[in-house]
Write a structure and sequence with these properties.
187 residues; four-stranded mixed beta sheet; single chain
């Protein structure tokens, strides 16, 4: 296992719909069947030109391998705050340090196949960097910068076949409800 990998045996934080911790369960069990509601986060990182960093998930991922997604997403460890967890994963997956701004939290359930799903209460953050990503290949197959306009076109032209469901949900809300915050990020 890669030193940066979350590992299927890592305990995730189970939550209720109000985001109160109700226990812990290993990552693999949280994603079995229809999934068990757990705490997660998504990071959307922009460059100084206003482009979003998207990543193609590694081929070894159990759920949505080789799908394009947000810059970074993961789960806080049982002893971590979201602030600590988001910074840790940003460094581990992309080799980036940058300030993050919380936008919103949403709950979703997405079925990948008959045996696996995501069921998360996900906090969404945005940030801006001038750094070049140094990707963790155990997590990321490929990456690229994309303008919001080009991303909108790609999502409209059949995004469900190439983008993760959580990214499509959060991007729609970001672009609809938080566009000024995104546009103000340009360095």
């Amino acid at each position: 296992m890669d030193a940066f990998d979350d590992g299927d045996s890592e305990a995730l934080i189970l939550v209720d719909e109000q985001d109160h911790g109700v226990g812990y369960l290993d990552k693999a069990a949280c994603h079995e069947g229809r999934g068990i509601l757990h705490r997660a986060f998504s990071l959307l990182i922009f460059n100084d030109g206003g482009e979003l960093l998207i990543q193609q998930r590694a081929s070894g991922k159990r759920l949505w391998p080789l799908y394009w997604s947000n810059s970074c997403c993961s789960h806080p460890r049982s002893t971590e705050t979201l602030e600590i967890a988001t910074k840790r994963r940003l460094r581990e997956e992309l080799g980036i340090d940058c300030p993050l701004q919380y936008l919103f939290k949403f709950q979703y359930q997405a079925q990948f196949d008959a045996t696996g799903a995501e069921h998360e209460l996900c906090s969404v953050y945005i940030g801006c960097t001038a750094q070049t990503p140094v990707i963790n290949t155990a997590e990321i197959n490929d990456w690229r910068w994309v303008s919001p306009q080009a991303l909108e076109e790609q999502l409209t032209a059949g995004g469900s076949r190439t983008f993760t469901p959580w990214f499509m949900l959060e991007w729609a809300r970001i672009w609809r409800d938080h566009r000024p915050a995104v546009l103000s990020l340009v360095i």
